[in-house]
Design goal:
single chain; 218 residues; alpha/beta; Rossmann fold; 2 domains; 5-stranded parallel beta sheet; 12% strand
């Protein structure tokens, strides 16, 4: 009997120890994220271009999948064709008016496609990341957490996403197209956007970052 009690007590201690260190590890992982313990909003707002708004079947996009998987409302504020420059004026209406707790910022791919267009203001590598910096600053000043959802279009692009996330205290998802781009069964006919199956893979990648973040207690 005594042995059994000692075994149960030891098991309980080990369980509590692992739980404590697991929690501490999670907090350490996110300690750089600005507004993590002070965000008071009620929604997750997905702010981006057509990769966010969706081009698959009706109602199929990563925000709609997140909404089914998470205990917090998810709002799709994506707009097809948006760049970092054209998205900036939408912040008030499509982000701040939605009472955001967390904002997933997915922008930059269309800027990359327009770099060669001298008639378009605000583009090029410097313009793109300056726009993102302004956007992040405004969202954080509002009081929400920012998740920067990147697409690795080039090594230079990657480094700038990493720099921006580090300097601004955002959570970085390095590649939301991980395991999707170039896989025929997961891509739409335009070979640029995910299809229905691809969006499920994208949502799974994003959930790997979101779920632990939502479990962090103040």
């Amino acid at each position: 009997m005594n042995f059994t009690r000692k075994l149960l007590a030891t098991s309980l201690i080990l369980f509590l120890t692992f739980a404590f260190f697991g929690c501490a590890t999670q907090k350490s992982r996110f300690r750089h994220v600005k507004n993590l313990y002070t965000a008071k909003g009620t929604n997750i707002v997905c702010f981006g271009d057509s990769l966010t708004s969706g081009v698959g079947g009706d109602g199929v996009n990563y925000p709609s999948i997140l909404a089914r998987e998470l205990p917090i409302p998810v709002i799709n504020s994506g707009r097809s064709g948006d760049t970092t420059y054209s998205a900036l004026p939408r912040l008030e209406r499509d982000v701040f008016a939605k009472d955001p707790k967390i904002v997933i910022v997915q922008l930059g791919a269309n800027d990359y496609l327009l770099w060669g267009n001298a008639g378009k203001p605000g583009y090029g590598l410097e313009g793109t990341f300056k726009n993102l910096e302004i956007m992040i600053d405004r969202i954080q000043e509002y009081g929400a957490v920012v998740i920067l959802a990147a697409i690795p279009l080039s090594p230079t692009y990657n480094k700038n996403y990493e720099r921006l996330a580090r300097e601004k205290g955002t959570l970085l998802i390095p590649n939301i197209m991980k395991g999707i781009y170039g896989v025929r069964d997961l891509m739409s006919l335009d070979r640029t956007h995910p299809n229905d199956k691809g969006y499920k893979v994208m949502a799974k990648t994003i959930l790997e970052y979101l779920r632990p973040l939502l479990k962090i207690k103040k």
